[in-house]
Specification:
Layout (H helix, E strand, L loop, with lengths): L3 H7 E4 L10 H10 L4 E4 L5 H12 L4 E6 L23 H21 L3 E4 L12 H10 L11 H38 L3 E5 L13 H6 L7 E6 H9 L5 H7 L4 E6 L19 H5 L8 E4 L7 H15 L1
Parallel strand pairs: 1-2, 1-8, 2-3, 3-4, 4-5, 5-6, 6-7, 7-8
Helix pairs in contact: 2-3, 4-6, 5-6
């Protein structure tokens, strides 16, 4: 239990629900403040033309920034969200260099805007020929089975296990590259007093794989800015596939977690939904959220209405209070 006004002050809204609608960063942050948010996350859809207005709004105290999502602002010439355009697992040194360059730009921007936390993705396994994930996804599309029934379907489990085995094999060298990439920005992050939250992902071949996430984060040791960022929707989707236990993930990463993306998942497996309308047990999730330590960010679909955003906020406040 806690002071609901204090919790409300800490709850942030991600710009992913609205950045595409605005040409002026100041107007965007005013819109978010008018929905009742004092904090925001600057997501990976922030174009260069929004930055000056954002800076001015923050200086004027319209809102504060709790976290920033790599890459932010968008790399030059890009105008839509592309968080995976440069991967830290790439076999191309040029792409690795671009990933490092724009990740460092995000870290600098985060520090400048007053945020001490950056959310990062971790690349993926790579296949010379067609990824086995396509076969699995095709099977899922062709079979009229509810998402909640996958983990009890023997045929699904069989093709899922074959797919994961192939991804594991393909990811061995990618893990080496990933660690080298993360190590290359550790000192830069420390010098800018920014923590990096390695987000759990929903894609089958995105790294780290679910069973490896804890070991990867822990491998950087105490004092490293490399930490964990928990996305409730992604974790729930993976639990539907039988690849992780949502609460177990929260428990094992408790000491390393710096923030949360909060959104619901429909019974058909669609994420970034209004909180309280889906299948996630937010009463359970709330037991692992420390309002004094963690960034708490509503990461909602741009398709949701203002009322749905407000209801999501109220639902989270209910569970956290």
């Amino acid at each position: 239990m806690g002071d609901i006004s204090q919790i409300e002050d800490e709850l942030a809204l991600s710009t992913c629900c609205c950045s595409h609608r605005f040409q002026d960063g100041y107007a965007m942050l005013e819109w978010m403040a008018n929905l009742g948010f004092k904090k925001v996350e600057l997501s990976h859809g922030i174009s260069i033309n929004l930055v000056s207005g954002i800076m001015e709004a923050v200086e004027d105290g319209v809102v504060t920034v709790s976290s920033v999502h790599n890459f932010c602002p968008l790399p030059f010439g890009m105008n839509s969200p592309m968080p995976n355009i440069f991967k830290p697992t790439s076999g191309s040194q040029r792409e690795i260099d671009l990933w490092k360059r724009y990740t460092e730009e995000t870290i600098k921007f985060s520090n400048k805007i007053g945020s001490k936390k950056v959310v990062i993705h971790s690349g993926s396994a790579w296949f010379f020929f067609k990824s086995p994930v396509f076969k699995l996804m095709n099977w899922m599309d062709e079979n009229e089975i509810k998402e909640s029934e996958f983990i009890n379907n023997e045929e699904f489990i069989k093709i899922r296990n074959k797919t994961i085995a192939k991804i594991k094999h393909a990811s061995r060298r990618r893990y080496e590259i990933l660690k080298e990439s993360f190590q290359s920005i550790e000192e830069f992050s420390k010098n800018h007093s920014v923590q990096l939250g390695v987000e759990n992902r929903e894609g089958f071949s995105e790294l780290p794989l679910d069973e490896d996430h804890s070991d990867l984060v822990r491998s950087f040791g105490q004092g490293s800015p490399i930490s964990y960022w928990h996305d409730t929707g992604h974790a729930e989707i993976k639990s539907l596939y039988g690849l992780l236990d949502h609460e177990q993930r929260l428990q094992e990463m408790k000491a390393h977690t710096i923030g949360f993306h909060l959104h619901d998942v429909s019974d058909s497996g669609n994420d970034h939904q209004e909180i309280g309308t889906g299948i996630i047990d937010f009463a359970m999730v709330s037991r692992y959220i420390d309002k004094n330590k963690h960034a708490m960010v509503l990461e909602l679909s741009p398709k949701l209405s203002e009322d749905a955003i407000k209801r999501s906020k109220d639902s989270i406040l209910y569970h956290l209070n």
